[in-house]
């Protein structure tokens, strides 16, 4: 860090947002050089994923998965979950919200961590707090992520409902819960809340299916599983209003006051102890002082495949650009972005695939850690046909030696979407136990444009669940 002569501290690269995407962008931009980087974070270094999303949610889901496997394995006995132990293990993964280890990592990479809220106040210039000015020699990267969106339903915000941060960091288990939404966060939250002892759980879903962005069979299987666990799922639900007489900010993950009454059209009043709102995310860009020309209609920064905005010195990675709201995709973009910044700083040409983020275009993998798991990559059959791609599909139940050995109640389904013209995958979806471990093979086949005829020679090991690949190929003979 140096002084620019104008009172501003000077760095080669300034990154706003200390989550996984920001960390990776800073690290890659200065790797193997004497360049300097500042990482600005107003909360905890490590970001949403580390403390309020990916890590705590998966820590809450895994015990229920293990218990389910044990209960469906003859010769193995299993009692109920020890909720206190489950929550303690979750807290160990979030470091009890202590980010000192993340700061130590940044220090080890030569990255300066700066605490505070930042806004862009000029060309390559960032102001932190009221008066601390920073200037970037090469690049400013926006990696501020998103925040939970709460609809304008009458009375909902005043009721102080739980958002995803409360659900992942719960400190007490409500007896009755309403989950508003039918997407990934809603399905995962409902899964662990039931596992942890919620007695009455109702999902209030505006649409006609869970996980509507996936192949229809995926949401259908998750809905059946949740109902088997005791959930009530209301599809086509019109939430007209919410009332809570004694709403109190009792802290993240604690019940926020007295009972909540939900007015759902055509239903008896729904009375619960807590409401979880899982209706999407909104970009955290409003306070950055960005020129409106840089943002799309939803408030996301628009970038090219180098992750550059209309201002060549300004980049955006992760949720802030709205291209794919997933931690692994944000980190992927950040790696590309960091390499682009480094190459430009050193005067090197941007030649080669590593300098373009192309996986965002129809090659995004995702795992929904519900029960059953849902993993998918690429596009669905409907998306392909809507785009005018001539496709054929192959579907089979996951019923191989590996799945029957995994647990007695194993139930799964798989679907491939195949481009007829090239005989390559454009989409794949799996639903079943631990199918998150199947999706990377599909991702490699899709990204590598491997013809299905060649996949006959990618022999799955026996007896594994991966043998479903053979069943899929056989179904197409």
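Sequence proposed for the structure above (477 residues):
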């Amino acid at each position: 860090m140096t002084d620019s002569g104008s009172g501003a501290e000077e760095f080669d690269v300034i990154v706003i947002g200390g989550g996984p995407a920001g960390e990776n962008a800073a690290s890659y931009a200065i790797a193997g050089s004497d360049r300097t980087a500042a990482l600005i974070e107003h909360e905890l270094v490590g970001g949403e994923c580390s403390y309020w999303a990916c890590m705590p949610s998966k820590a809450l889901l895994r015990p229920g998965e293990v218990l389910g496997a044990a209960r469906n394995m003859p010769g193995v006995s299993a009692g109920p979950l020890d909720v206190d132990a489950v929550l303690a293990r979750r807290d160990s993964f979030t470091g009890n919200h202590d980010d000192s280890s993340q700061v130590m990592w940044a220090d080890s990479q030569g990255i300066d961590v700066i605490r505070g809220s930042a806004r862009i106040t000029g060309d390559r210039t960032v102001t932190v707090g009221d008066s601390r000015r920073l200037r970037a020699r090469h690049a400013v990267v926006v990696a501020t992520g998103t925040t939970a969106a709460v609809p304008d339903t009458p009375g909902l915000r005043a009721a102080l409902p739980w958002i995803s941060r409360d659900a992942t960091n719960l400190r007490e288990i409500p007896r009755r819960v309403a989950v508003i939404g039918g997407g990934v966060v809603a399905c995962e939250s409902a899964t662990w809340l039931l596992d942890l002892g919620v007695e009455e759980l109702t999902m209030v879903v505006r649409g006609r299916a869970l996980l509507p962005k996936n192949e229809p069979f995926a949401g259908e299987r998750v809905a059946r599983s949740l109902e088997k666990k005791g959930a009530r799922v209301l599809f086509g639900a019109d939430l007209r209003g919410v009332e809570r007489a004694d709403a109190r900010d009792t802290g993240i993950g604690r019940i926020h006051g007295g009972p909540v009454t939900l007015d759902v059209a055509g239903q008896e009043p729904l009375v619960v102890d807590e409401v979880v709102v899982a209706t999407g995310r909104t970009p955290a860009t409003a306070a950055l002082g960005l020129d409106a020309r840089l943002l799309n209609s939803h408030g996301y920064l628009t970038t090219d495949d180098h992750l550059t905005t209309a201002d060549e010195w300004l980049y955006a990675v992760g949720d802030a650009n709205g291209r794919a709201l997933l931690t692994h995709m944000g980190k992927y973009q950040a790696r590309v972005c960091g390499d682009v910044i480094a190459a430009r700083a050193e005067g090197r040409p941007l030649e080669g695939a590593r300098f373009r983020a192309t996986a965002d275009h129809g090659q995004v993998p995702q795992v929904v850690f519900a029960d059953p798991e849902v993993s998918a990559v690429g596009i669905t059959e409907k998306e392909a046909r809507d785009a005018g791609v001539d496709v054929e599909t192959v579907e089979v139940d996951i019923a191989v030696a590996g799945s029957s050995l995994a647990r007695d109640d194993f139930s799964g389904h798989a679907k491939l979407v195949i481009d007829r013209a090239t005989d390559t995958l454009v989409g794949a979806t799996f639903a079943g136990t631990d199918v998150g471990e199947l999706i990377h093979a599909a991702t490699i086949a899709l990204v590598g444009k491997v013809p299905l005829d060649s996949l006959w020679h990618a022999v799955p090991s026996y007896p594994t669940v991966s043998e479903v690949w053979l069943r899929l190929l056989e179904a197409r003979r």
